[in-house]
Structure prediction request, 522 residues.
Amino acid sequence: MPKVNGASLLRGLIGTAGLLVVLEAAGRLGAWDTERLPLVSTVLLRAGELLADPEFLVSARSSLTTWAFALALTIAIAVPAGLLLGMVRPAEVAVRPLIEFLRPIPSVALIPLVILMFSETTHMRITVAVYAALWPVLVNTIYGVRDVDPLAKETLRSFGFGPASVAYRVVLPGAAPFIATGIRLAASVAIVLVVTSELIAGGIEGVGVYITIAASGNRLDLMIGATILVGLFGILVNAVLVAGENRLFRWHRARTEGVT
Amino acid sequence: MLELVDLGHNYGSYRAIDRVNLKVAQGEVVCIVGPSGCGKSTLLRSIAGLIKPTGGTVLLDGKPVDGSPENLAVVFQDYSRSLYPWMSALANVSLPLRRRGLDKKKREAAAMNALDQVGLSGAAAKYPWEMSGGMQQRVSIARALAYQPKLLLMDEPFGSVDAQTREELEDLTLRVCAHHGMTILLITHDVDESVYVGDRVVVLSKAPGTVVGDLPVQLPGPRDQIHTRELEAFVRLRAEVGRLVRGITPYRNTHGYGVETR
Prediction:
């Protein structure tokens, strides 16, 4: 789990602010045509305004819902599958080549196919996002399960617990930090794929659709403003999940960092 | 209560233990001692039902062991791996009690009681990684005690703690187990410890491990780390066990003291 402390956070903020100031100054000094590419201050202002714009909010809500569904579905599929493959070695050996074949296929390349498969755009978007988000959760879960100490499992077995109890009480909590990392990665991947599928396949609602419409109206300020909000959402989700991991899995960090 | 009949186990072509025969009576504390690689842990795992021995039988109360038997608990050497780091000491100790069909309240009460017996009632809410090695092994012992097994297996239980903690834990085990009337099978490579803790010391040979000595320990109780260890009987017995462990043929010395070997 990446650890963010106050000093590094402050430095990051200073760096970002510095870059924005430089860009703003360059724009004002006439480095480019600000009619075409708006100033930093204009974009930031638009981004703020978008948060109160009903049209944008409808799109944002739609994207958010798609993303949440996609992530939930990803977890519902990949965690049980990963637990199974992690615990049952022959199953993992049998499925491994298939995983290695499917995993590198870019989800974006599947969009045209998926469009033909689903008449409902939301289903299409969810499918594309799940396809991409599945792998980090699946692979992390498998590794997490493998990482569970055999002695931890034997201890419970020696007290007469059966395989199902051992899976639920030792393997699942033991693998949980890895699973959480997989979910955090999947959350970011799913954001990218939801917006990408909206951009490529179009539709009625969605931040990607909003950006496409802004582009057709030559509104670069709105395009960049909306894009910045997507990025900020990604940072927010990541920060919340990291904080959750640090809180829930203090034991894991204590162990891996050797703090006793 | 425990009987091993011609117990043997091979890992592929490697024979870890070979025709081990042993009878342990109810309430006895038996120490199994042997050189490293004598298959001590294989023996323990077979009894605990964690591996299926390739030969012979384990009888517990006259019934053959199949899978992990009821009324048995194991304390492993590696407390840091056998305790669950995501659980507090209390939760670790109360977890196995689910097998006893107790409700949460009763489980926690029993766990608190066990932690109290090992002197850790103040640390119930602590996590294993917040504790010293000795404390963690106390939690492991408490976990076994709370379960109230008829047979307690201990696999080098004090092998990973410092010498002083080791002595404390030896005494703690003797005291608490006498109190519960538990039968204990303790596996160790430490000759001193086997004689100090055991009512009987069983010596295993180098792999393939088999019983080469079975000595009753007749030392006055309660045992004491200083007095017991300076008794002539203790010193003599320790020497006998030491010879057996090193594979030196036992002999009768001028005092006429001898060793019964099988």
Remarks:
- The interface with chain B takes residues 149, 151-152, 154-161, 169-170, 173-174, 176, 249-252, 254-255, 259-260 of chain A (CB under 8 Å).
- Residues 54-256 of chain A form a domain with the MetI-like fold fold (CATH 1.10.3720.10).
- The longest helix of chain A spans residues 163-201.
- The CA atoms of residues 198 and 209 of chain A lie 6 Å apart.
